[in-house]
Amino acid sequence: MMSYQPHTPRLLPPPAPPALPLRQRVLHQGPQELVPPDSATPPERQVQEPSELAQRYELLRTLGVPTTASEDCDALATDMAEKAGFLYGFVNLFLEEQTFVGLHQPPADSGYVIVGRTMRRDHGWCPEVVSRKKALPLPDVHASPRFSGNHVVDAVGICAYFGAPLIHVSGIVLGTVCVIDPEKRSLKDARRIQGIVIGSGAQVMDGFTRSSLR
Questions:
Q1: Is 87 within 8 Å of 181 (Cβ atoms)?
Q2: Phi and psi of 158, rounded to 5°?
Q3: Tens of pLDDT along 81-129?
Q4: Strand partners, 24
Q5: What is the pTM for the complete model shown?
Q6: CA–CA separation, 166 and 102 (whole Å)
Q7: Residues ≥6 apart with Cβ < 8 Å to 75
Q8: What is the 3-class SS of 127-158, one letter each residue?
């Protein structure tokens, strides 16, 4: 897992590093890389993404928000996951990779999958949240053919996902907050969980905005 760095992190995009795939470690098994076949990116997205990424970096620099692991964001991810009753919680910035500046997950010896701090931009359901700029509640990912075929479903064993976008007042989407769990949730409980995740997203953005006032 990633350790906290005492130096001030760079907010400008560094030279593109080698892709670091999400990794899993299950009790009694060695680490395994999650590397699915590359999916085609629509031409229009290829044109838009560099501009969107530059806008995100510029806004994060203006706000003074670090792009590495943050104890405050870890605490927010933990609070969100515990309130929702989920094993995993994330504060996720969409940079060259999905970057989990806030992360909550089970202990290393729990037998559950242990994830790293980065994941490819086309993995998971957060890309859908960023694209549509709306919350995405999936109490049972297997109930929808559109979302059940995601690579992360098998790699991490996810049955429930709830995510919400991190949208600045300027309209720029910085990333998402989300919770995931290997157990599906009932439709009855979905509204409560979605409210927790949306509220946590607002709390994260409030913290980001206050950072610029210090």
A1: yes
A2: -95, 135
A3: 999 999 999 999 999 999 999 999 999 999 999 999 999 999 999 999 9
A4: 32
A5: 0.76
A6: 13
A7: 102
A8: HHHHHHCCCEEECCHHHCHHHHCCHHHHHHHC
